[in-house]
């Protein structure tokens, strides 16, 4: 199995290399990621200018690594159509430092990269952990490796796009694992007005709405201390209406806790 790993926090982010380390135990890994932080760039693709790519020294030994002067989505497109010679079986984007939930998902570069994998016909996982500062990255990395093993090439009837979020908790304190849907209103927008002396400007500010009320949503799951897995295929991109077999998720938390 060959896995493409990317992210939106940039090629030196700790989350990316923690993920690579875990995936390398079960698959061949190639890293193609933006050369700088691109959080909240969403699904953006660069068509207006040329993209420069550098073969880069990996932070985990013996991993083919490229840094891209572009967006997370650019990185995936370049990897799948040009840089990587052998066929990729799975795209994993992350581990993002900070959760990607509800109506933040469309602006998430982590999800934007995974979406490109999905649009190229591959199973794809976006994975994020709560708390930007010191997230428990190892749990997320092990979970990604478990999911990768369960998504064996061509063994499932459908293409898969999963948005996975973990609370920043030690594994023993994680309460459960919930298959969720995106919360529809997890933020409100505010526009701040200012003046720089010459011109008026506006600044967009997002406010998190706390206290989810719908117990089927990703925001609720994380608030409760659960892992949230949201299959995005029918909500974000209505390409086909695939059914993901229950076996993909059955006893997943139990298996994670056994590791
Ligand atoms: Mn990010």
In a nutshell, what does this entry contain?
With 259 residues, the chain is an alpha/beta fold. It has helices at residues 14-24, 72-83, 109-119, 137-150, 218-223, 252-258; strands spanning 2-6, 28-34, 53-55, 64-68, 90-97, 124-129, 161-166, 176-179, 187-195, 200-208, 226-231. Strand 9 (187-195) and strand 10 (200-208) form a beta hairpin.
Verbal overview:
- The chain is of the alpha/beta class and about 260 residues long.
- The radius of gyration is 18 Å and the shape is globular.
- Strands 3-4-2-1-5-6-7-11-8 form a 9-stranded mixed sheet, with helices on both faces. It has a two-stranded antiparallel sheet with strand order 9-10.
- Helix 2 runs parallel beside helix 3 and helix 4 packs across helix 6.
- Helix content is about 25%, strand content about 25%.
- The site of manganese (II) ion has 6 residues, from strand 5.
- Manganese (II) ion binds next to strand 5.
